[in-house]
Each structure stands twice: as structure tokens, then as C-alpha cells.
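Entry type: protein chain
Record version: 2
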Amino acid sequence: SSGINAEYGGRRDAAFLRLVEGALEATPQLLLQLYIIVKHTKLDTTWYTYLSVVISFFSVVWSMTSYINEHRAASYNKASLSVVGYGLLVLIKCLMCLGRITAILLAVTISGYMVLGVLSVHWLSCLVYVAVARTHFYGGLVWNEWFFKLISSITLVLVFINIVEGKSRVRWALYHGYTALQNLAMVLYWYFNMANHPWYTNALIGLVVGSTLLGSLLSLLYYRFFHPSLTPVMHLSKIRPPLDRLKAKHLEEPREAMHVTTI
């Protein structure tokens, strides 16, 4: 069992590195691609340019969902995602990421400094939250712990990750509520500072607001019916039978408390 645990622990760490790469590299690259397409409309944009944008977008989403899946797979006290639950989670992340990236893109076409200010305030808020949170990533290694806190705060600018054991519904709601207000502020800034309003203005506003609202509603559906903690043994993935048998045995054993991260 120690070999299996080490294997999935390594996969979880690799998934977290992909998440960090998605937040620090893939997302800025995606925004740069979109900015060039939007601002330089006279460029000869081919079909594979748009294909590259789509692939970049889904690679960012995959880095988010992959971390959640591998984190649960490597933890004995966390049930794995079901196929339906994982599919719903991918859709939620697509919608949330679409609204966030679109809002940032629209605002940055008017002023990059405004976007930098909004994201800086968001990062500082996340840094304070991570700093005061009672995390135990490296068991007493202070500098490693704080470096991990710093990376986590930067990642939280784009995507919510639960860094503290226990139920995260309240933290999730506060994070996405805060992010939704930022998205709305950036969209309104873009709208009221445009020289003229093209025909697709309302469509873009509807895209940001609609994707955020729909993502939130689907999140409520996910937490209510498809979250692994609801039926921890039944939701164990069939893709990893050796580890799942060990996890199922662990979940069935009586214990005083069970901390399930509600990601």
C-alpha cells in the first residue's frame, strides 16, 4: 500500500505543478493570444490560430480539474470523483474560467493598469488569507511552507483551491462572489470607457454574466447531488482499483472525525 500511496502522492504533486503552470504561464499566454487577435484585427488570422486559443483554454481548465481529481485520488480520507461528477466539474471550471478570462480581456483592451490594479488587490487579499490560514504543507519547514503559501496565493487569482482541511462551501462562495464582483467591475469599466459600442457589446456582457451565473448554479448542483462526500464509497473511481480498495476499507473503518475537502 505504501508503494501505491507514493505513486498517487507523486501524481498529486505533479498535478499541482500543472495547476501552477496553468495559472502562471498558460493563462497569461492565452490572454496575450486573445489580446493580439482583438487589437490587431488586420492581421491575417488563420483557423489554426483560433484552434490554438481553444487548446490553450482547455489546457488551463484541465490543469484545474486534474489537480482536484489527483488530490482526491491520493488521499485516503477523500472519496474519488464519479464520472458524472468529474464531467460536471469540468463544465463548471470551463464556465468560470470563460467568464474570468473574458472580463480580464475586455478591461485590458482599455487599460492594462486597471486590470493590474484589480488583480493586485485580489492577490494581496489571497496572500493575507493564505498567510493566516493554518496550513501544514511541509510539517514545520518554515521557508518551504511560506514559499508554498506564496505560490498558492498567486494561483488563487485564477482558480479556487482549498488549502485548509474541512468543508469549503463558505470559502468557495466568498471566493467566487468576490471574483464575480471583480468581473462585473472590469466589464462595466470596459463598457463605459469604449469610444463606440459595436453590435456584439451586449453579447460579451451576457457571456461574462451568464457563464458566471450558470457556473455558480451548476456548482450548487454538484455540491448537492454529485459531491464525493455524499456517498464516499459508491463514488470511488473504477479507474484505480488497487488504491480504491484501500480507500474503501479506510472509509469504512470507524474513527472520531473525518475531514473531507469539499472541492
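Comment: Confidence is low (pLDDT under 50) at residues 233-262.
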